[in-house]
Design a protein that fits this description.
Two copies of one chain form a homodimer. Chain A is an alpha/beta fold. In chain A, 29% of the residues lie in helices and 25% in strands. In chain A, 49% of the residues are buried.
Chain lengths: 649, 649
């Protein structure tokens, strides 16, 4: 028999991902707000609580839920420690509240309530037995007053009864749900991505041929201060490991490398070592420790690029051939996307016979670098390894380093990207790089910020990457760079640029119709003049400064799009803790664009018809506005307003 | 360690109610269509199946799922037996399909595929070992051809490989879901509700005072043929049990009954018996058996009204005082909705100390009447008993009588109504009775037919009930009756009327501003002249005949609302198995209304701009229509069109 006399039904608990299979995500200091339906048969009053605890706690904490109407309830709790929190809800029929509410109606109708007061006295007396000391005495006294006919004692007893009355047959929700709590930077960050060998590559000593490769020491001394000066808080290096020789790719991805070509840093491993080694030309593991420490001193993170694949020269190929797939002729299977072949890369056989040993070795790569002080990892192509691997591996790393954060570089199908986020990645690459029209930006951002996705997938917006030079940057030039950087840094709480290519407006494609860089740093050294007067570094610095001043920009939601009568202008706002930012961006790289807004004033916290002042944080100019209809005009020179809202009257 | 090398993720299985806690509902002969996400890491091909079985089957059946794009899959199965079906889904990486797809790309690119063919031959050889007889031989032969360099054998082997290839590390969805399968009448029915004592109450024999009470024999001989003639398929009697004397209510709900007042049939139980007895004035249990059999002979159901509450004179009050709540003074608590008191009714204490015995006794009430041949039950106020009770009780009854159907009379909060449907009620009362405006009808029907609700809650629409004479019937008279009957019988697959009050246009309220009947049959005998020329019985008969001819009207969905440029007209259509019905109803009881439609032709199965003929099933008139824009006009005399769509050109 499945019968039970628990009378309260609990349904529709939100947030809840895949029936509790996956956690929601928060950062330290956030609140988790939980809503749910709880209702009983009949007309009795229901009481409901949210219960919650950190994974290390033994006891559950309890927060009384507030009734929202239509049998919906809400309660929230703060998460203030890294790790996993657990939460669920419970509800029961509140006999005392039911009695007290009915008593009041009877009293108001002038009925004789002597018998009712006796019933209440019994309830209060039972609670008195459960209470101790002062509470017990107070309840006994209230019980006596009820028995003596004092109906006013009923309301006075409410708080004590909430604490001490027995909960009869409470219903506890069927599942305990989880919150993965990470540090603040998991939610809000600005990434500065460089090829460490390349940024400050310089001329070699007099008399030698070629250019001198940049080193980790160069990065520490020159790139880090530069990135910090621009307000970025994650310095992210492409892979730093020894690079294979076999089938090494040449400039512009040529099949054969010249003798001086440095090779793609994604062809990982040589006789000099694999995923736990540093290419000698860049430096040593000690240099990584020093760089990580230097980042930490500035309040920044050093992020390494973890790409789980091997060049044919990787030590694992010799030491662990069982970690790779073999063909009938005994050779190791190289990477392919038929008919394309990537003979310089051996994928790992993630589900082969030796999978457990391999998974352990991969986890140990993260643990090794974490031990050197690295706490941020950008993971290359995670969608080509099993979801179950990531779920296990990231949990293993976080068990030792709960402050580790992981960015998933997966440009793949939407459900696969979402699943990686569920598996534990702190942040995710997105389709932003290719979303350029107003309607598609609005639709995509609505999906990211106003659906269940927002509970577990944190977007990181990139206007460019070493692999992607989108057509609009090729064609739009400087205005496009400014517009896209503004969108990336204000639509998403995390953003990044492949720099210095971005700040120096590099936009020559490999060939017409291709979205890849010509003379890509993936295959050759490039020297960048960061002092070039055309640099948009000051603009990027402004964006990051504005993000630092405005907490609203350091969360993805709530995000509101506002109407404007021009499809070349996009208008949106964010609010958080009383901070409101309204952004207007032009999507036209050639011509000035203007329009009349139709602002959703409620989303801005402004009363209908109210007057207020907007101050453009990019220029410092202020504009007196009134109501929802206001005129905006943007030129390609500075195709954005980032308005702080001030002086509401 | 939670790691696993299962590579496929399965998510978003629909339908699934509350993570599988509650079943979806279907009727015998329906199909269950299941959609879900299934995807793996990387680029390998995935195969997916729906598995399903009846609760009495041992083995699972398997249906291959079809890929819909965006990692979504669909499959369906038929349910052809009463009871519970189970279903879930499974998916795995299809090594052979992956290999074959890549082979084709290599062949098309003109690559040397000798090694690939060897790999394929190994896969085929492994499958040959798992196959038997002819399949094994065929696979061995295909393997030889591959080894001999015949790439064409790859595609030829697909079907055999689907059958015999090993499924590596398949993922089975975490939950097994349920389908409650009932008989067709659970989904589609037309209820004719009467007070058996009243319909053919007649003058007493000469010389006696008062009127003679109708009997179950009268119902069998006169009401049943009448209801059958109108096309109703459920004859539903208000409670037939002995009625208590203590605090009996008089005419028009007067607090004191006169000596001849028959009392409310909901004050159940007297010294003559309780829930398993028949009021002697109506007849005997044998009469119920005879009436149930007579209904069955006509292909109809007899439905009894089960109201779990007792008059103070009910035998249970004496025999099982522990089934009621007692007050501190030892009296039994009567029903109250403070400050209102219902002293003629004792509610049962559904969660008191003796709850298990009480629940058993209540279940036995259903079993008793089912044993007499009754298979349909209208349950009064189920929302005042615990959901867990219904879930248990209805399952217990269906275990013995899987053809039993239950209608929940719960006019209460929306989530409570939905929960009762989840607990096992076949059909549900709704808010239709009070939804009169076009926008609110459209919104409510969209909620009922196009959300998850449609998977488990089957609405039964009532234009009136003995307790509810809505204002629009009071004010609108005959046109309102016709309009509301048309809406009820064509919007919902199940409908009913409190008859003959409805067919005779009874609409005098208890008092102005009250939605109750004056001289309600609940408290007095009424004699109805079913031959009254003002009767709208012929119209009700037409509605039921049209429902019988059109299968589209015997399901709630798919339902499509069409635009029309007049808010006093509502236009909607239903389609099923090639049958299409388009309904136009006027919501104005006073004036003619006309308008131009803007039909959603795709929902009608008509090509853009197509010509077609609509035939009004109410009048037989036909109209040649073309495209989506057509003129309609309705008069209060006949405020509805029910169009069959014919002769599409």
């Amino acid at each position: 028999m499945r019968e039970s006399r628990r009378r309260v039904a609990i349904e529709g608990v939100r947030p809840e991902i895949d029936a509790g299979e996956h956690p929601i995500k928060r950062t330290v200091g956030d609140r988790v707000t939980v809503e749910f339906d709880a209702f009983a048969d009949g007309h009795d009053r229901v009481a409901a609580v949210l219960v919650h605890k950190h994974e290390c706690d033994v006891a559950w904490s309890e927060t009384r839920a507030e009734a929202l109407g239509n049998d919906r309830w809400r309660a929230s709790f703060a998460v203030d420690r890294l790790g996993t929190y657990h939460y669920t809800v419970a509800a029961w029929v509140d006999a005392y509240a039911t009695w007290a509410a009915e008593l009041q109606k009877r009293v108001e109708a002038g009925q004789d309530v002597a018998l009712e007061l006796d019933e209440g006295a019994i309830l209060v007396g039972e609670a008195a037995k459960r209470a101790k000391a002062a509470d017990a005495a107070a309840l006994r006294s209230l019980g006596r007053r009820l028995r003596d006919g004092d109906a006013a004692a009923a309301a006075e007893a409410t708080a004590l009864m909430d604490r001490h009355a027995a909960r009869r047959d409470p219903t506890r929700y069927a599942r305990v749900l989880e919150v993965a709590v990470e540090r603040e930077r998991a939610a809000a960050s600005a990434w500065y991505k460089v090829f460490p060998r390349s940024v400050f590559a310089g001329p070699t000593a007099a008399g030698e041929a070629g250019v001198r490769q940049g080193t980790l020491a160069d990065v520490r001394e020159r790139v880090l201060p530069h990135a910090a000066g621009l307000g970025f808080d994650v310095l992210y290096l492409l892979p730093i490991h020894p690079i294979g020789r076999t089938f090494r790719k040449g400039r512009d991805n040529a099949l054969a490398a010249g003798p001086d070509d440095p090779g793609s840093p994604y062809a990982i491993g040589s006789e000099e070592g694999g995923h736990c080694a540093v290419a000698p030309a860049l430096g040593t593991v000690d240099d990584v420790r020093a760089l990580a420490a230097a980042c930490r001193e500035r309040g920044m993170d050093l992020a390494l690029d973890i790409a789980f694949q091997c060049s044919p020269d990787h030590p694992w190929v010799r030491e662990h051939p069982e970690w790779f797939r073999h063909r009938p002729d005994g050779t190791i299977r190289y990477a392919e996307n038929p008919p394309k072949k990537y003979q310089d890369i051996y994928p790992l056989d993630m589900t082969g016979a030796a999978w457990r040993e391999l998974w352990g070795a991969l986890r140990d790569v993260f643990l090794f670098w974490a031990a050197q002080g690295v706490r941020a990892f950008r993971v290359d192509n995670p969608h080509t390894k099993p979801f179950g691997f990531w779920r296990w591996c990231l949990a293993e790393v976080k068990r030792v380093y709960p402050d580790a954060i992981f960015l998933a570089e997966a440009f793949t199908r939407p459900k696969v990207m979402a699943r990686l986020a569920k598996a534990g990645f702190s942040q995710s690459y997105t389709y932003f790089t290719w979303r350029t029209e107003k309607w598609e930006l609005e639709r995509y951002l609505t999906e990211l910020t106003a659906t269940e996705l927002a509970e577990f997938m944190r977007p990181n917006f990139w206007p460019n990457t070493p692999d992607i030079l989108p057509f609009h940057l090729q064609e739009g030039g400087r205005p496009a760079f400014l517009s896209r950087a503004t969108l990336a840094s204000t639509l998403a709480a995390s953003w990044g640029v492949y720099a210095p290519a971005f700040e120096l407006l590099e936009n020559a494609p490999l060939a017409p119709g291709r979205e890849e860089y010509r003379s890509s740093e993936k295959y050759e050294l490039r020297r960048w003049d960061l002092d070039d007067p055309k640099s948009i570094a000051p603009f990027l610095a402004s964006l990051n400064r504005i993000r630092q001043v405005h907490p609203a920009l350091r969360r993805d939601r709530p995000l509101t799009f506002h109407r404007v009568d021009n499809d070349q202008l996009i208008v949106y706002s964010k609010r958080r803790d009383g901070d409101t930012v309204l952004v207007v961006v032009s999507l036209d790289w050639r011509w000035p664009q203007s329009g009349w807004t139709d602002l959703d004033l409620a989303a801005l916290g402004i009363e209908e018809g109210g007057r207020f002042t907007v101050r453009d944080e990019l220029t410092g100019k202020t504009y007196p506005w009134s109501g929802g209809r206001n005129f905006v005009r943007l030129e390609p020179d500075l195709p954005a307003h980032i308005f702080a809202i001030e002086d509401q009257q």
